[in-house]
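Think of the structure tokens as a kind of shorthand, similar to the way a musician reads notation: each symbol stands for something richer, in this case the local conformation of the backbone. In the example below we present two proteins back to back. Begin with the first one, reading the sequence and then the tokens, and try to describe in your own words what changes along the chain.
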Amino acid sequence: MILSVTLSLLILITMGQLPPAKVSPITFKNETPIPVLVQVKSIFNGQLLRDRPYLIKPGETSPPIQIPGTKSVSISDSKSLRPLVQLPLPQTNEELLIAIVGTEKSMKLELRKPTN
């Protein structure tokens, strides 16, 4: 058993493919009075990755976003696409719930405890 696992890992390494790293999900909750567009970007293995943008209406929550690497988020006004917030996200191996709070003129992000 140990030999087959070791052999499988050796084959993956020699082929240049490693098993995917664990990626913890990030969820955004819109606690503002306006709909926002959220997009997470990351740098992974020297490449820029972009997750699809999510329209989040007031009071709604995004689906869990799972993207590897060093992440940042862009939050825009859904109507004008004007950027409202652009910030790096904390590096963690735990699930994150990030609340978008404030108004259109003054918006910020707050970490919350995920409800599981």
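Once you have a description of the first chain, move to the second and do the same.
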Amino acid sequence: MFWLLVIAAIGVGAYYGWPVVQDRLLRPVETNTAQVAELTDRLAAIEERLAQLEARAAATEAEVGAVEAAGEDTAGEVDALADRLAELDRRIEALERTSEELGARVDQADSGFAEELAVLRAMELMSRARLFLYQANYGLAEADLRAARAVLGEHTGTPRIDEAVTRIDLALSALPARPVAAADDLDIAWALLLGDVAVAPPVASTTPPTTTAPPTTAAP
């Protein structure tokens, strides 16, 4: 009888106590376990997202570095071209002053000497026009080509100058749509002038001037 009462007491205690155990012990443990699992999943997703962001940041940094390096190279080329243009400006100004000083002393009959001075000045202008073509500054290149043509136009009548003027006209007609063709015609005009430039006033001759084939290595 005693054992029956004990067993009955245990059964009653289990019947009424088990829900309490579930509510206060088992369910909180299950809830915490689920929350921990969810937090673990979220942490893994965050870590993966951070890894992706770090990879993208590294790629962006590499691209920025490449752009900066290219910008530095381009800036160096622009600076070098600007220095050459400044030097050409100084040479043109010095040549113009020299031309004015000599022109006041040269007799009008000595047309050969004046022609060579004009050729030199035109070649300086053509050199600067070539640099402007490299910079894709077609407006300034055209202005210098027109100035060179005007200088040479006062001394037409010899084959090299006439052919050089023709090539300059072709270069002008090619701008701005065909800058490569303009550069080729400019190189030929330069070569025509360079092939027969005299360093002193030419000696009068009864032999008519002949056209000199343009050198293949000369360039502005």
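Compare your description with these statements about the second chain. The two ends are 126 Å apart (CA to CA).
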